[in-house]
Amino acid sequence: MSSGLALSGCASYLPGAGPATDDVAPQPPTSDVIAVVSVDAKVNQTLQQLGRKQHFAEIFNDQMAQPYKVGAGDVLEVSIWEAPPASLFGGAAADGRNSLGGARATTLPDQMVNHQGSINVPFVGAVSVLGKTQADIEAAITEKLKHKANQPQVIVRVKSNNSSNVTVVGEVTSSKLLPLTSKGERLLDALAMSGGVRQPVNKITLQLTRDNAVAMMPLTDVIVDPRQNVPLQPGDVLTALHAPLSLTVLGATGKNEELNFEVQGISLIQALARAGGVQDNRAGKQGVFLFRFEPEATAKALGLSQSANQDGKVPVVYRLDLSDPAVFFHAQNFRMQDKDVLYVANASAAELQKFLNVLLSAFYPMLNVVSVTR
What we know:
six-stranded mixed β-sheet
């Protein structure tokens, strides 16, 4: 029996950290249950195109900051100025702060916009204010008073904003309902007003929910790219998420453990480095594998025909051949995903060495006995 056959026959009895290279990727392939895909430039390009997520600025690009519009529940203050001789709204101003060049001013009691979206103004009646800006309301009241008061001028002020708010929750110092102003608050403004995030910035993902649109981005990307710091709109929900991403490393690497990584993501080559690299006395250069469940659409784009499981996922094994220098460039562009499993198989020579060690450990005692009896 040749040494190769002997090793093959005894492989199942030898200690090991996992399957050998030929077990994961047999040549020729003997099963279509799990596809093995070699990482190259084309695979990288396909994964990057399918995995690219839209940024905040792309999803909410047509929703820039808008002037404040009054909503139901807001409390308004209405001040009306009349030129002398004014008489419609009563006596003259008590002091110069409420008069201007002899004109008389009357400030009406604060009014809350009712569920019908209107307020009441003396001598005018109900005034519809729902969805209107302060300037629109001022113009509407002035027009209605034009033939009743002497050169009326109106100033409307929002004393309490109860309708245009955003909700900030998650890993922030204080989750709260934040009122929007005519300033046009943005994402980072809302985080600052909530006391900032409670976790390191590079471990936070922001999720913005607006109507039926939901988008997520790492906080660091929003900080470094001002375009992603989009203006907020009434009803937005901003969530600061702290969900550490992780991958599992097994086999012939410097350490076998679960590794956490940043929300910005890391490359496959970085993952190998954080695992202590491959062990040059054990690892097979052609036996670096990444196990991942891919969406069915991704599997089809890679040219795979395997059926998806009940979750719509297809198991895929990506293979790196480190004997090819070009693979190191491909591995720099290959992005790791949450729950990936990275496995480095032992080289055949390492398995042979283990087999020889087993033989020697068995024969040495026998040789010692023979030498003693002679």
